[in-house]
UniProtKB/TrEMBL annotation, chain B:
Domain spans labelled Ig-like: 1-89
GO biological process: adaptive immune response
Listed name of the protein: IG c131_light_IGKV3-11_IGKJ2
Gene Ontology, cellular component aspect: extracellular region; immunoglobulin complex; plasma membrane
Keywords, ordered alphabetically: Adaptive immunity, Immunity, Immunoglobulin, Immunoglobulin domain
Top-rank taxon, per record: Eukaryota
Quaternary state and interactors: Immunoglobulins are composed of two identical heavy chains and two identical light chains; disulfide-linked.
Amino acid sequence: QVQLVQSGAEVKKPGASVKVSCKASGYTFTSYGISWVRQAPGQGLEWMGWISAYNGNTNYAQKLQGRVTMTTDTSTSTAYMELRSLRSDDTAVYYCAREGGIAAAGDYWGQGTLVTVSS
Amino acid sequence: EIVLTQSPATLSLSPGERATLSCRASQSVSSYLAWYQQKPGQAPRLLIYDASNRATGIPARFSGSGSGTDFTLTISSLEPEDFAVYYCQQRSNWPPAYTFGQGTKLEIK
């Protein structure tokens, strides 16, 4: 069965960076993309960007351009999302999701990773 | 950027009733629209993709309709487990980029 397993919760200081991993299993990793979506406490869903696991092409949300980098390691079927220059309003649960073939950001989702930015 | 507006913000209904949730796009998204359900502490769950197709394992009481700018998610007869927050989401053509609506909270009356 398709599974996406994310890394554990993180606590970071303002200005630091965080890198969240998302290990995929149960499907051919390079046949799909990965979306990253975040959700601030009590708020809605915010799409952060997309990466093709086939060729590494990316597309980032405009508001995060310059601060976010998404990568994949096809040898381990793992996707990564790095966010730099963290601010307090980056505190959120970060989700990865399998994307592709249908017009949906994700048909299977990771369990989420809480990133807390606090001094 | 395409903006999705969901209505109502909150919908109060009883089990067994019919729920109708709306999503309006600021410009045409063709049929590139999906619906998700999210319960507290859980990841979103894909319900409907391409406006009207049920995702794997989704019960038949969930249906989606619409195209262009106006879309509807209908739950024909509410079960207790259906009370949650529902989001619509649209996709741009290429490269993939997505926008979510602000959500509709479906609560027990």
